[in-house]
Amino acid sequence: MTRPGRPRSAASHRAILDATIHLLSEVGYPALSIEAVAARAGVGKGTVYRWWSSKAELVVEAVHDAALGMVAEPDTGSLRGDTRELVAGLVALACSPLGRVLEALSAEADRNPQLRETFDSVVLARRQEVATHLLDRARRRGEARSDLDVALVCDLAVATVFHRARMDPGALDGGFVDHLTDLLVAGVSGDPAQHPDRLARSVG
Amino acid sequence: MTRPGRPRSAASHRAILDATIHLLSEVGYPALSIEAVAARAGVGKGTVYRWWSSKAELVVEAVHDAALGMVAEPDTGSLRGDTRELVAGLVALACSPLGRVLEALSAEADRNPQLRETFDSVVLARRQEVATHLLDRARRRGEARSDLDVALVCDLAVATVFHRARMDPGALDGGFVDHLTDLLVAGVSGDPAQHPDRLARSVG
Amino acid sequence: MTRPGRPRSAASHRAILDATIHLLSEVGYPALSIEAVAARAGVGKGTVYRWWSSKAELVVEAVHDAALGMVAEPDTGSLRGDTRELVAGLVALACSPLGRVLEALSAEADRNPQLRETFDSVVLARRQEVATHLLDRARRRGEARSDLDVALVCDLAVATVFHRARMDPGALDGGFVDHLTDLLVAGVSGDPAQHPDRLARSVG
Amino acid sequence: MTRPGRPRSAASHRAILDATIHLLSEVGYPALSIEAVAARAGVGKGTVYRWWSSKAELVVEAVHDAALGMVAEPDTGSLRGDTRELVAGLVALACSPLGRVLEALSAEADRNPQLRETFDSVVLARRQEVATHLLDRARRRGEARSDLDVALVCDLAVATVFHRARMDPGALDGGFVDHLTDLLVAGVSGDPAQHPDRLARSVG
DNA sequence: TCTTAAACGAGACGGTACGTCTTGTCTTTAG
DNA sequence: CTAAAGACAAGACGTACCGTCTCGTTTAAGA
After folding, report:
1. How far is D199 from chain C (nearest CA, A)?
2. What residues does CATH 1.10.357.10 cover in chain C?
3. Of all nucleotides in the shown strands, which has a C1' nearest the CA of B16?
4. A79-190, which class in CATH?
5. What single DSSP character describes residue C28?
6. Delimiting residues of CATH 1.10.10.60 domain(s) in chain B
7. CA–CA separation, A8 vs B64, rounded Å?
8. C190–D185 CB contact, under 8 Å
9. Please, where are the H alpha helices in C79-125?
């Protein structure tokens, strides 16, 4: 027993999500208009409004849809190798068409919790998971400190890559990946005992 | 010998810049409208358009005007102390009203080079200078590696602070400052010899 | 031997025609929507469109359906009596629910020949027939001129009644019927010889 | 001391009224859209809405504006001559572009009192005035009955002309004018004493 | 003082996009 | 094969601003 009436058109649904992603990457979030999405998708405005009640809702679904399965789990055997791959993956993402969309999203994140959550789940969450495993392995090999804030390390990497992508996209080359990897590995493996305050604390 | 006619009204000028900063911090860059600036400043729209030909130009001047002399040079005697103060200063900036404006600016930076340059000169340039001195002193004390990319370290700090301010403003507390300082200090002082490539290079 | 498949629903057919008439009398022709007809008839939109290809076609059938046998043939023995009854019948029609529908129809007649024809056949044709007989009898009694344009006299009566119904429905009372009858009878029985041109013609 | 701000643009005002009249004559009242008026006038929608709050209001002004000084006062010396000129004037009006507009207006009159009033004041009022003078003169010459309802006579003429214009525009020729004049003159000059009822009444 | 001319406030202008509504058509499942 | 349901493309609705423009008024320097 199904609902009567004409079912939702899969073609329209797809066309709208695609148009949204393309327009987002071209004009950014604030300049994205539902009218333009409908026109680009070859669809009536009503069809968009029927299924998504706001621009944010539409963007959220479009981004989730576009970002399915985009993080691989690196396991090269060394902290440096794994980190480099994670950073390289981030750079690849930031440089992809979806990257421009995500930049726009993060830019809007402080004004719309829905978008913040989307950026978080698409860019950060999976990477934190991956990074957690990565650091566990590293710790077992004695390559990493045990008092790390994984979320902070992830934010460090993500923020820096997206910041650079925004401020100087040309600089996102292999050298950048190397240097950032260096800093992260050093930070992650650095002996906290070097620090007098922490030394004092751990002694006391 | 001055131009004939009524001179520019200093009061209007000030009122417009102030209104711009306030509105920027309230609604962000994309939603900032000249109409609203004019209304808030108690000024005709034409007066704004007479002196600034675009929203970007207006924002650039307003931000520069608001950001005069906001970075102190820390010198605590230790890398960790100096770093902590730098980070704390960044957090303070990001949490200030101007901080919200700058966030918005950095968000828009990938669409407008003029804004990128402004963010760069107001937030990054002076801090890179400060960080350079800070690291020089640290190196002289043997606390820092000698092969550091200062710009990258600065970007790391700035990007992370502003990223957190965007994604989770509540988390910008003392603990955050500590952890970020830890990571930066570890990264900056970390032994590059741990890296096989660099090891090979230093050996060869 | 019947056609295969589900037969046309007589109930739907009736409900649609009735809904059409009621809505026509309420909102008029231009504001009549197939959607509203379907809703009022408790029927799917498609069912209406299946059987009538346009609003005009639907209205034409509905009006013909509603107007079956509505003109009686007066024969009171005098021109005045017959005329009064004809006019009274027109006023009754114009005041009836169907009258409002016909007004709307005549209003739209200049944009749609199909509607013109319907108005003509429902309102005018039968009345011209009646009026022809009426005037024949009058002429035989010496009450009417012999050079009358029957169609014009009919139009005069119909147009005036419907015009008044539109412009001032409250004025369609017995006095109005009297006065209009007066004018028509006078016009119909008036001596054409008063007219110099016609005088000249009849002399020559 | 005048109002501050830019004054209303006379050109836009004119263009909007003209566009309204032209579109009315092309598509009729119900199909007239403010959007189309604005486009045709080369004007923003907002400018139309700023000065007229509804379609009806706009149409009312446009029609009044277009109808300034369109009724001449005939005085040929005879009832027939004056009547013929009045009828001919009506036919000319109904055949003019404004005529199509007025037809549309009268069609809508039963749904909108504002439009009724406009049709009345533009088409009827001035003609009733003229007809009153015309009949006064005729009565002084003994050409007309003294118990006439001038408004009814006017309605008769106006309704018939507009009815014909709607139902059969091609028939609005000189012959039509002649026949209608005949009937009107006969009706107006017909001896009411011929009528037994009235005779009885006047006797009693 | 009087003249001059730019700067000013106000706000109308031509536009564009909004989100809502209704149109007639199309496409499904149920009967 | 019809009926009902309802999704669809299209486009007008009236609103809200956009950035430009055109007014009458204000204001200070130069004559």
Report:
1. 13
2. 79-189
3. E8
4. mainly alpha
5. T
6. 10-66
7. 52
8. yes
9. 79-95, 97-108, 113-119
Cα–Cα distance measured from residue B28 to residue A186, given in angstroms and rounded to the nearest whole number: 37
- From residue A96, give the alpha-carbon distance in Å to each of A21, A70, A102, A112, B42: 12, 11, 10, 24, 45
* D180 interaction partners in chain C (CB closer than 8 Å): 152, 156
Amino acid at A174: G
Which residue is associated with the tokens 């504001």?
A: C31
Q: Do chains C and D touch (3 or more CB pairs under 8 A)?
A: yes
Fold of the CATH domain C79-189: Tetracycline Repressor; domain 2 (1.10.357)
Cβ neighbours, 10 Å, residue B149? 16
C153: amino acid identity, one letter = V
Residue closest to E26 C1′ by Cα = A6
| CB-based contact, C160 to chain D, within 8 Å | yes
Q: Which of B153, B160, B198 sits opposite A159 (nearest CB)?
A: B160
d(CA C163, CA D151): 12
C190 contacts D166? CB cut-off 8 A: no
Does A155 sit within 8 Å of B167, measured CB to CB? yes
Q: How far is residue C30's CA from residue C181's CA, in Å, rounded to a whole number?
A: 33
Cβ atoms of residues C122 and C61 within 8 Å: no
Beta strands in chain B (DSSP E): none
Residue type, C71: V
Tokens encoding B169: 């403003």
Q: Is 1.10.357.10 the CATH number for D79-192? A: yes
Tell me, rounded to whole angstroms, the distance of Cα C195 from its chain centroid.
32
Pick the CATH number of A10-66 from 3.90.1150.10, 3.30.110.10, 1.10.10.60, 1.10.10.10: 1.10.10.60
Calpha distance D64→D60 (Å, rounded) = 6
Alpha-carbon span D133 to B12, nearest angstrom: 68
User: From first to last of its 204 residues, what are the pLDDT tens digits of chain C?
Assistant: 444 455 566 788 899 999 998 888 888 888 888 888 998 998 988 899 888 888 888 998 999 888 876 677 889 999 999 999 999 999 999 998 888 888 888 888 877 888 888 888 888 998 999 999 999 999 999 999 888 899 999 999 999 999 999 999 899 999 999 999 999 999 998 754 444 443 334 433
Identity of the amino acid at D101: V
